[in-house]
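Ticket #4471: structure export looks truncated?
Reporter: QA, pipeline team
Priority: medium

Steps to reproduce: submit the single chain below to the structure queue and open the exported record.
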Amino acid sequence: MIKKLRTIAMIPARYEASRFPGKLMKDLEGKPVIVRTYEAAVATGLFDQVYVVTDSEDIRQAVEQVSGKVIMSIAEHSCGSDRIAEAVANLDIDIVVNVQGDEPFTNEDDLRNVLQVFYEEGADTIDLASLMTPMNIQSEIENPNNVKVIVDQDNFALYFSRAPIPYPRDQDIEVTYYKHKGIYAFRKQAVLDFAKLPMRNLEASEKIEAIRYLEYGKRIKMVYSETPAIGIDTPQDLEEARAILKQRAS
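Actual output as written to the record:
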């Protein structure tokens, strides 16, 4: 019998955001964005526990008002992985899933699929897993807010970039562009290792924390998702999210 891995979800929630300050506390059809994300993660039923990890008293209060569990960060952190590493250091777990606080439409199938790789053949070679979804619209491919990923023949990540990769030098070659969806499933040790490793120039240049894992030899298994990523990075994204919820409620 395959041992069930002790699995939790953590939602790193930083109040300040360079592109859209305070976005996690913006109203999304009657609830803050962060509360919508927390409730979506809990509703999947996939986790032994779900936590919001934050340095914001406002976010803490909003989540606790819906009986959510919150861990307050002690140190200052530059990225979600660092925040999670501090929070899980003393927890007895095997896998921690980083659910992005600004992605309130994260669905159960995506989360189940990204967790499944840790139960399949060759799982012991995987340090972390994440999601990718195809992009077909050129403006989305060129948008630097959309992180792109390229993979090898076994769907292990080769590189992440805000630039369109691969570059289409030969227009006759058909390639699929994949958007990185910001959900990670880490082995506990992988995220603890991450927090101890200094940022190198590629990560600093692109501002993509997944690159640090690659630079230090960690293996990231990418899982295909047919569900488009709906993150809230701008006020326009928030309006689109509100429209989606209104449509679902009608």
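Status: closed, not a bug. The export was complete when the record was re-opened. Leaving a note from the reviewer for reference: DSSP finds nine helices and eleven strands in the chain.
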